[in-house]
Amino acid sequence: MRSSLYIAAAALALVSCQKAGVTPPVTEAEAIKIAESAEATFTAGDLDKIMGQYANGAAMIDAGDPNPSTDRKVQTGWARNFTSMKPLDYEVASRQTRILGPDAFVTSGMESFTVEAGAARPRVNARFTDVYQRQKDGSWKIVAEHMSMPPTPVAPPAG
């Protein structure tokens, strides 16, 4: 009987939270789906959809630029350069996801995609870290991003 009362009280509390507009905290599975949904826009060639994944004022570091930026025009230029290479076959080879709180998470990993380089379509590998935050309207936006090329392996000295 006592356990039934506890279950009923917990259910009532959950309903009350939902009615009060309190959103449940993001789970790791949800975070991965959110990130995958954003990543699906990266090779669609639609600049507006790509930039729609980022919050205004997001802090970004692009692999091809030495300076970080929070300037939307600069960031849109980076996205335009990326789409001009006609990237395809985007995939994340490894991903680490960490929940930072009920409304934020970070995902990092290695990504790869092909680009157009004349008649060739070379495969490019990159490292990424994206910080997502739930916005007031309930949407998820990238608020910080760091992209970089993996270091070139150094051969051990002959010896």
Task: Produce a short descriptive summary.
The chain has 159 residues and is an alpha+beta fold. The protein contains four helices and five strands, in the order αααβαββββ.
What key phrases describe this protein's structure?
single chain, globular, alpha+beta, disordered N terminus, 159 residues, five-stranded mixed beta sheet
Structure, described:
- The protein is an alpha+beta fold.
- The chain is built from 4 helices and 5 strands.
- The protein has helices at 2-19, 28-40, 47-51, 72-84, and strands at residues 54-61, 88-101, 104-114, 123-134, 140-148.
- The chain has a 5-stranded mixed beta sheet with strand order 1-5-4-3-2, covered by helices on one side.
- It starts with a helix and ends in an 11-residue tail after the last strand.
- The model is unreliable at 2-19 (pLDDT under 50).
List strands and helices in order, with pairings.
Elements: H1 2-19, H2 28-40, H3 47-51, E1 54-61, H4 72-84, E2 88-101, E3 104-114, E4 123-134, E5 140-148
Parallel strand pairs: 1-5
Antiparallel strand pairs: 2-3, 3-4, 4-5
Number of strands: 5
**How would you describe the oligomerization state of the chains in this entry?**
single chain
Question: Mean of the pLDDT scores?
Answer: 88
Tell the overall outline: globular
Approximately how much helix is present in the residues?
25-40%
Strand order of the largest sheet: 1-5-4-3-2
DSSP strand content: 25-35%
Number of helices: 4
Give the N-terminus to C-terminus distance in angstroms: 76 Å
How many strands, which pairing sense, and closed or not: the largest β-sheet? 5 strands, mixed
Structural class: alpha+beta
Low-confidence stretches: 2-19
